[in-house]
Amino acid sequence: MENKQAIRRIGVLTSGGDAPGMNAAVRAVVRAGIYYGLEVYGIKNGYTGLLLGEMEPMSLRSVSDILSHGGTILHTSRSREFMTPEGREKAAAIARVYKLDAIIVIGGDGSFQGAKLLSELGIPVVGIPATIDNDIGCTEYTIGFDTALNTVKDAIDKIKDTTYSHERCSIIEVMGRRAGYIALHAAIANGAEICLIPEKKMDVDADVIQPILAGRTRGKTHFIIVVAEGACSCSELAEQIKRTIGIAPAVSILGYIQRGGSPTVRDRVIASMMSVHAVEALMRGERNRIIAYKGERVVSLDIDEALAQTKEIDPHTLLTSEILSL
Length: 326
Ligand code: F6P
What we know:
It is a single chain. Helix 1 (about 20-35) packs parallel to helix 9 (about 265-285), helix 5 (about 145-165) crosses helix 6 and helix 6 runs parallel beside helix 11 (about 315-325). The chain is α/β, with parallel strands linked by helices and about 325 residues long. It has eleven helices and eleven strands. Helix 4 links the parallel strand 4 and strand 5. The protein binds 6-O-phosphono-beta-D-fructofuranose (F6P).
């Protein structure tokens, strides 16, 4: 492939909450970069490391045997300093000192907003979407979502065994920040009776109490309620259920277990494809892009257009979860 803009050296960093598959992405950026004749610098700890000039050249072998590992070998952070205009000026100056012709940012929405502001200071960027939340508007898929969902699926299967045996009601809180993708997909995959997500305004009586009473009438003896962390407080919900119908639900908050573990095939493959695409976009002379997954294809989008896009929970997916909970 012709190197249209004579790009020589790129940096790569991981930023924000880690996601399984970030290592697969780092590996693919390094290998594709070297394949196309570039020097690739690994920047430590996200934007924090960029501000400190914590970076070193990566080799083909420096990314051996990381494909199957969760977390990120580059480490990650949420940098307060980078959020300030002075911080970003400093980061851009450091990128120039290290002669980085572009920076590939592997992370979520917040990291991309930062990347866009950095690009406005003359540092070309490319974003690769990685967050377990799957909450980035411009892409149908974000790296880490499938692995997190599989972890949630395993955990809820286990909680369901004991919920069934004790004829109980279990409330399970999953991650997702302000989005309900993990909760909704887990509710379908685990056959939950009730799913609460921030995108749908909740009425405790209509959405929780009445379905439990109706389920009991239909012969249900146990109930799984999946709650997205942004939807409501699980302990308050448990209190309300106890007060209203006398059942004391058991609350499980799955927490950070959802962010770890060996990435699934889907996450390894999509991370690899997106990352090779990111390097190739730079080689073609594209600048300030976000790599996205649309209609089973990897595409490169203009960063301003990409970040202006929003996505909504599909109402039919929500209905599917309700139909199957009968
Ligand atoms: O964005 C990924 C995520 O795990 C969210 O689901 C969660 O709300 C948040 O990160 C937790 O962030 P922190 O690592 O700062 O506790």
